[in-house]
Write a structure and sequence with these properties.
Elements (H helix, E strand, L loop, with lengths): L8 H36 L5 H22 L3 H9 L9 H19 L1 H8 L1 H28 L1 H4 L3 H38 L6 H25 L17 H10 L1 H31 L7 H21 L5 H21 L4 H12 L3 H20 L4 H29 L13 H29 L4 H16 L17 E5 L4 E4 L11 E7 L3 E3 L4 E6 L5 E5 L5 E8 L9 E3 L6 E2 L4 E5 L1 H6 L3 E8 L5 E3 L7 E3 L4 E7 L1
Antiparallel strand pairs: 1-14, 2-3, 2-13, 3-11, 4-10, 5-6, 5-9, 6-7, 7-11, 8-10, 12-14
Helix pairs in contact: 1-4, 1-6, 1-8, 1-9, 1-11, 1-16, 2-6, 2-16, 3-6, 4-6, 4-9, 5-6, 8-9, 8-12, 10-11, 10-16, 11-15, 11-16, 11-17, 12-14, 13-14, 13-17, 15-18, 16-17
Length: 637
């Protein structure tokens, strides 16, 4: 297995196809989560009496909030269904296609206003809407879970998986922000074709929904036709799936997950609400709906800069302060929106400041580091929970923001065929109070919560990893507590996990209070020392835990003080929980990068339960070894 995957034509097609998938996927989600509410408040109930229309708008927005919150419970079930799917096309592709096609058809039906049913019977309309929207959201979730879930099935190389994820995020930014650029021209143009009038009417919204649905379906087929699932690295069985109970249990037992999640929730709520009301700002307050495209252009440009800039800035600025800087810019943006909204230059500056934010990246990294924090504090390692917390928060904020945006539109009189000329000073004051003051308070609270309560800095995490590592290698913590009592008297053959020179632990420059041996490596590759199961990998990737079938646990520790590299230069070739054979390639590490960063690249192997070992091989110093060389037998008591 090569360290770097060769960029072949097939690989390029696979990457491009996967990236196209999120272009359509994100555009579809933007249409559903942001612009559907605009359609509801402006055109869905056109022709009805305003008082009845406002009641129906309130009903629909309330139903959406309730439905979205209820569906959070359904997501783990969807994950299990996807994971247990077995077809000739794999487990992910069928749901990507089915999910996108069904949800696209239903989106078009909903954007017709369910064929004017509200004008005939509003009670029947409400019932049918709930059925259609729930079905739409469930099938969208199927496509969402399947799309991101297939990443480990596309490559066994962590670096390659990172490329797929980055490309997907990049095109997702285009899909999401691209809507902001095209929404007004498309809706206005097709409304003009149907009515001869230049405004954003129901025919234009329907055309918009059709176009986005077609893009989503085409992009879904691009993923299905252009990628290839690898069965040997598909995610493991449903036993590892996370339930909502698991998520809340982890939150309750891990204060750093709790506070980081709260800070992110407050930020995300403010961010999504603001994205939802900016259209109303340009149309009803500024009176320039045709210039709304500026919002998308600015967001796209800033988005292209902030993501690549983050790792560079983080080398000099701790992530806690990057979060704070982003929130400070967000708060400043709200102040500009409040006092300088009539000046397009000031408004443009405010939009730019609003999008300069690292909250999502910082939160994901903080939550990831909380894995080791929780393991040290509670003895529980909740990797799967990390995958569930942020999407759950995104769904919650999406639900609450939809409700708030709909309420703002009704309260400020920005529904139906209202225009900027219809807005009174009271309407504008109401809009500003709800659209900007509430998010401003949320942004401030997010900043306070993160700075005051999130203590898991990069240095703190490094200290936790070292403390946890010392407890593991000294036998204070076992790899699998449930299995220690069931260990039988057996023997395994131990092979060298690396090429290099064998040395004893006494020869290391730093004291390690464990039982094992070390290798001064001749190459940057780590192999499995025996048949077993990968129990865990530290988020810094420099520590791997492996356990044999009969319960022998070992820690492979690459380098000394390499925890401070935060995973840079390390590439894993397995999934946690995966069974491996002796000699399987587990890890690539960049020896030059480690040494040039001022660290020792010695590979250290510890046995986690030395008191249970009856016999260990005699590790002779200064012995040259190759990976898979037999080092002797390990016998259990």
């Amino acid at each position: 297995m090569e360290n770097k995957q060769k960029l072949t034509g097939k690989t390029l097609i696979s990457r491009t196809s996967f990236a196209l998938g999120n272009l359509g996927h994100s555009a579809f989600y933007g249409a559903l989560s942001t612009y559907f509410i605009v359609f509801v408040t402006s055109s869905m109930f056109s022709g009805l009496d305003k008082s009845i229309a406002d009641k129906l708008i309130g009903l629909i927005t309330s139903l959406i909030v309730f439905i979205r919150i209820a569906e959070i419970v359904i997501d783990p079930l969807i994950g299990n269904v996807v994971d247990n799917t077995h077809t000739r096309w794999g487990k992910f592709k069928p749901w990507i296609i089915i999910g996108n096609v069904v949800s696209a058809i239903l989106l078009i039906i909903i954007f017709t206003g369910i064929f004017g049913l509200a004008k005939v019977n509003w009670i029947l309309f409400a019932v049918v809407f709930v059925i259609l929207f729930v079905t739409l959201d469930i099938f969208y979730s199927f496509s969402d879970v399947a799309y991101w879930g297939m990443v480990p099935a596309l490559s066994e190389d962590s670096r390659e998986r990172g490329i797929y994820t980055s490309l997907g995020s990049f095109t997702g930014t285009i899909g999401w922000n691209g809507l902001t650029i095209i929404i007004v021209p498309i809706v206005t143009y097709f409304t003009f074709l149907a009515t001869g009038k230049h405004y954003q009417g129901a025919p234009g919204w329907l055309a918009f929904a059709v176009i986005i649905s077609i893009i989503a379906i085409v992009c879904a087929f691009a993923v299905a036709l252009g990628t290839n699932e690898k069965d040997n690295l598909i995610r493991k069985s449903a036993k590892q799936k996370t339930t909502i109970k698991d998520v809340f249990k982890a939150l309750a037992h891990n204060d750093q997950i709790l506070w980081a999640s709260l800070a992110y929730f407050l930020y995300s709520f403010a961010y999504v609400v603001t994205n939802g009301v900016l259209f109303y700002l340009f149309k009803f307050v500024v009176g320039k709906p045709n210039e709304y495209w500026i919002v998308g252009v600015i967001a796209t440009i800033i988005g292209f800069c902030t993501s690549p800039l983050y790792p560079i800035l983080n080398k000099f600025i701790p992530r806690k302060w990057l979060f704070a800087i982003g929130q400070f810019f967000m708060i400043l943006a709200y102040l500009i929106f409040i006092v300088g909204r009539d000046n397009m230059v000031m408004l443009t500056i405010g939009l730019a400041l609003f999008d300069i934010n690292f909250a999502q990246l910082v939160t994901v990294l903080t939550l990831t580091d909380a894995i080791e924090y929780g393991q040290l504090k509670n003895g529980e390692r909740n990797e799967a929970v990390i995958l569930a917390v942020r999407p759950m928060i995104d769904k919650l904020t999406g639900a609450f923001s939809n409700g708030l945006v709909g309420f703002i539109a009704i309260a400020a009189g920005m529904t139906g065929k209202a225009t900027a000329a219809d807005m009174t000073a009271k309407d504008i004051h109401t809009f500003e109070s709800l659209a900007f003051y509430i998010p401003l308070v949320l942004a401030i609270l997010s900043l306070i919560a993160f700075l005051a309560k999130v203590k898991l800095t990069e240095k703190k995490h490094a200290d936790i990893v070292e403390e946890l590592n010392n407890k593991l290698i000294s036998g204070q913590i076992s790899l699998d507590k449930k299995r220690t009592s069931a260990i039988s008297s057996e023997t395994i053959e131990l092979s060298s996990p690396a090429d290099g020179e064998l040395i004893t632990l006494n020869e290391l420059p730093t004291e390690f209070p464990g039982t094992g041996f070390a290798i001064r490596p001749a190459s940057g590759k780590i192999y499995a020392p025996f048949d077993g199961t990968i129990k865990f990998t530290f988020t810094t990737k420099h520590v791997i835990g492996i356990e044999s079938e009969n319960g022998i646990g070992a820690i492979i520790h690459v380098g000394i003080d390499t925890v401070n590299m935060h995973g840079e230069g390390f590439v894993t070739h397995y999934l946690d929980g995966q069974k491996v054979k002796a000699g399987d390639l587990l890890l690539d590490f960049d020896r030059d990068l480690i040494i040039n960063s001022g660290y020792d690249d010695t590979v250290i192997i510890f046995f986690t339960q030395p008191k249970l070992l009856n016999q260990l091989p005699e590790f002779r110093a200064d012995t040259k070894v190759k990976h898979q060389d037999n080092l002797g037998k390990i016998t259990l008591k």
